Amino acid sequence: MTSKRQMWFMKVMAVICSIAVIIMVVVLFIENAPQKSSTFSPPPFESAAQSGIPNVPEDLGWDEIDAKAYRLSICGGIQINDNKADVYFTNPVENDVWMKLRILDSNEKIIAETGLIRPGEYVQSILFTTIPENGNSVKLKVMAYEPNTYYSAGCVILNTVVD
């Protein structure tokens, strides 16, 4: 009789071990399965982009910035009228990058943004989704991308104040 109990006990233990092995294999498979990554959506091109070099009023503080890998021009003074500001954000024709501009508030929240502009294009005005008060600090963040691949070519951040 002891032999039958031992045999039954061995069968039960074999089933339990088999279930444990199956559970371990399933858990290992789930943990090592490739995770779904969010798909990259390239930024759109700016519909209001214009070709050429803008004729900028002198009082807007328009200046060229040398970021070593590329150049850009932009107005340093932000004067908001009717939810928009003239920034004359320019990507010189000599560059080989696409660019976009984001304006961030003091909490790093995006409050205005352009689409991409190609070399030889500029955007005169940028539309604000949130309007900062005069005297508030904002950051002008210019992001550059390699054409067609959208690999980052770096960014430039300019600190300024809303006039």
Describe the protein.
- The protein is built from 1 helix and 10 strands, in the order H-E-E-E-E-E-E-E-E-E-E.
- The protein is of the alpha+beta class and 163 residues long.
- Strands 1-8-5-4 form a 4-stranded antiparallel β-sheet, with no helix packed on it. A 4-stranded antiparallel β-sheet has the order 7-6-9-10, with no helix packed on it.
- Strand 9 and strand 10 form a beta hairpin.
- The model has no long low-confidence stretch (mean pLDDT 91).
Structural class: alpha+beta
**Name given to the CATH architecture of the domain at 50-161:** Sandwich
CATH topology-level name of the domain at 50-161? Immunoglobulin-like
Which spans have pLDDT < 50 for at least 5 consecutive residues? none
